[in-house]
User: Which sequence fits this backbone?
């Protein structure tokens, strides 16, 4: 009798666990249709989407190459709502690198889609001439800025001392156009209209490319996103327009990249995937 | 990699892009014998260009004391260690340049300086090579030495920063050879910072882009020398344009110093970049050390410079250093006077070979007092 109760208990516990268990990992990325897209990587709504574990490869196709592997894999979940897709990327990185500086590189990740749905996908390494790719890029230092890190050198180097900035001159009224003009003179990237040089209001940036070395900012960044530290790395959500051609009937493709700042990774020095099939299905 | 000719190392070498020389090449000659390390050049540059957020640590121009000074820390020693000793056969470099020794996956051999490497901008200041034992300073020649090395971007013919950038964000202006970072295109990967052996590209953490000396191109376009040149109180610098050796003109001041008289030499020519800032080497430093820094032409350059008092042309041209803010594209000596001339043939400045000397009488008759420095 005792044995029977034990068996029943085990079965019951097993059934309960099965009810709470997230969908099993899938060989490709499956975006599940949902009513709303969670912007928080820790939102429980992500449990509705199956996880795809994408093995990462060295970017060793074009110089400068990454010759030593770092991040092994990125775990991906996807949700779709209306015209938007949300992707949750999670990867292991024991050290958070979110400060830019000489010889210092922030952690980051990116998702990439072909600009046009076509029979043959563009080259997965940044696309190719005439077959461009859309990219959304998240970086840990931008996240830190959005989270409240201030716009001073002391935020990066607490012991830094500065005698004087020309735009702090007493003759310039604070917040005036004249003061802003003076500050821009000494921030050449800002003066040249480089969105990367401007003060960050978003942790993500939309980009386009037609091959290695051609990466450029998109006309505007429409994507949203944010990342948080997990117990052993980063979890990042990127919400962007649904890729062209993706529907319940038609699959698309997506690619991923991860930069581990502590390993000196930036630009072409990254861990990346090839094209990964991306399909869509209704919520169960 | 393409094959290009580098006259400074006397041979062809590998470079990321094909040879493409500008219409004219911005260049400069620095006379190290006249530098007193007052850092006026450093401040002139700093106040003009790098007073913004994220630029606090940047010194597009710096002056370091050799042998121990370096900014960033050990910028040259680290690369010399990586590249190995330099082997010259006459004027031909037989070792490998930083392009030829690039490891797999890299465009050039380089290293990445970190924040700490910029923390001691004047390390080694006035430290001499060796101890000055008791009384030794009274004997000549001194066995201990140091000299000041003023440095800006070399606006190289084969820039490693340009070759390193995977985005093509760095370009060499075809009209004057000045090397610039396109601030609108740079994405701050720091490949250029790693690649430049002279470490004259700096990452700005506030804008996320890399920045460097621009040779004060808005001034050069107006025929005026850069800020660090015209503010030099030691008058050690002359800016202008340099021809290739086969097209050297004796009436071009820089051609005359570099190609005709060969008294001004490139900085670490063995790196392979064909740098365009040339140095008249210090005459009191052991030649093995100078050969490592300036290449095999050191002995002849020092001998020619030492003989300048007996050489009216050379002495005359050296007198034009620091004599005008304008760029002198030509020069001419007429008897005991030298003149700096511009492209239009306009005489910009005239300088006597020997400055008139006025000896003041020890007794001041106006004030009826002896002229003494102390009471």
Assistant:
């Amino acid at each position: 009798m005792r044995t029977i109760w034990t068996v029943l208990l085990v079965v019951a516990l097993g059934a309960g666990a099965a009810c709470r268990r997230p969908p099993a990992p899938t060989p490709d990325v499956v975006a599940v249709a949902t009513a709303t897209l969670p912007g928080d990587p820790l939102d429980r709504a992500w449990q509705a989407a199956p996880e795809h574990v994408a093995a990462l490869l060295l970017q060793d196709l074009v110089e400068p190459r990454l010759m030593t592997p770092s991040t092994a894999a990125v775990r991906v979940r996807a949700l779709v709502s209306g015209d938007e897709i949300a992707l949750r990327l999670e990867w292991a990185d024991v050290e958070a690198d979110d400060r830019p500086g000489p010889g210092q590189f922030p952690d980051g990740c990116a998702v990439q889609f072909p600009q046009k749905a076509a029979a043959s996908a563009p080259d997965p390494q940044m696309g190719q001439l005439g077959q461009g790719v859309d990219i959304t890029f998240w970086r840990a230092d931008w996240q830190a800025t959005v989270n409240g890190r201030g716009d001073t050198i002391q935020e990066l180097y607490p012991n830094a001392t500065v005698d004087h900035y020309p735009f702090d001159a007493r003759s310039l009224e604070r917040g005036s156009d004249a003061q802003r003009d003076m500050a821009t003179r000494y921030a050449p990237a800002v003066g040249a209209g480089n969105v990367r040089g401007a003060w960050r209001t978003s942790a993500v940036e939309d980009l386009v490319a037609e091959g290695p070395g051609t990466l450029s900012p998109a006309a505007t960044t429409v994507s949203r996103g944010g990342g948080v530290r997990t117990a052993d790395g980063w979890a990042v959500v990127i919400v962007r327009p649904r890729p062209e051609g993706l529907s319940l009937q038609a699959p698309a493709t997506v690619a991923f990249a991860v930069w581990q700042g502590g390993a000196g990774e930036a630009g072409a020095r990254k861990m990346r995937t090839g094209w990964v099939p991306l399909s869509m299905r209704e919520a169960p | 990699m393409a094959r290009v000719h580098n006259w400074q190392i006397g041979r062809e070498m590998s470079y990321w892009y094909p040879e493409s020389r500008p219409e004219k090449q911005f260049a400069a000659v620095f006379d190290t014998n006249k530098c007193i390390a007052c850092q006026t050049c450093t401040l002139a540059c700093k106040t003009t260009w790098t007073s913004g957020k994220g630029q606090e640590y940047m010194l597009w121009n710096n002056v370091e004391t050799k042998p121990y000074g370096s900014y960033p820390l050990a910028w040259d020693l680290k690369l010399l260690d990586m590249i190995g000793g330099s082997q010259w056969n006459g004027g031909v470099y037989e070792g490998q340049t930083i392009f030829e020794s690039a490891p797999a996956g890299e465009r050039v051999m380089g290293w990445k300086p970190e924040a700490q490497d910029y923390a001691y901008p004047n390390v080694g200041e006035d430290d001499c090579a060796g101890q000055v034992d008791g009384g030794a300073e009274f004997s000549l020649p001194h066995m201990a030495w140091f000299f000041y090395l003023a440095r800006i971007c070399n606006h190289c013919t084969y820039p490693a920063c340009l070759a390193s950038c995977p985005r093509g964000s760095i370009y060499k202006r075809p009209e004057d050879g000045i090397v610039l970072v396109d601030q609108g295109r740079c994405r701050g990967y720091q490949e250029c910072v790693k690649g430049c052996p002279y470490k004259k590209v700096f990452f700005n953490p506030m804008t996320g882009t890399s920045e460097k000396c621009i040779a004060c191109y808005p001034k050069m376009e107006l025929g005026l020398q850069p800020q660090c040149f015209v503010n030099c109180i030691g008058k050690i610098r002359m800016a202008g344009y340099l021809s290739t050796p086969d097209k050297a003109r004796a009436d071009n001041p820089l051609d005359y110093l570099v190609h005709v008289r060969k008294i001004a030499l490139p900085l670490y020519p063995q790196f392979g970049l064909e740098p365009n800032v040339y140095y008249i080497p210090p005459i009191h430093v052991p030649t093995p050390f100078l050969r490592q820094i300036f290449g095999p032409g050191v002995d002849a350059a020092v001998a020619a410079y030492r003989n300048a008092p007996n050489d009216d042309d050379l002495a005359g041209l050296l007198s034009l250093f620091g004599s005008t803010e304008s760029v002198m594209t030509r020069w001419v000596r007429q008897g005991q006077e030298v003149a700096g001339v511009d492209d239009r043939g306009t005489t910009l400045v005239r300088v006597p070979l020997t400055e008139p000397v006025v000896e003041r009488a020890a007794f001041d008759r106006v004030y009826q007092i002896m002229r003494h420095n102390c009471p």
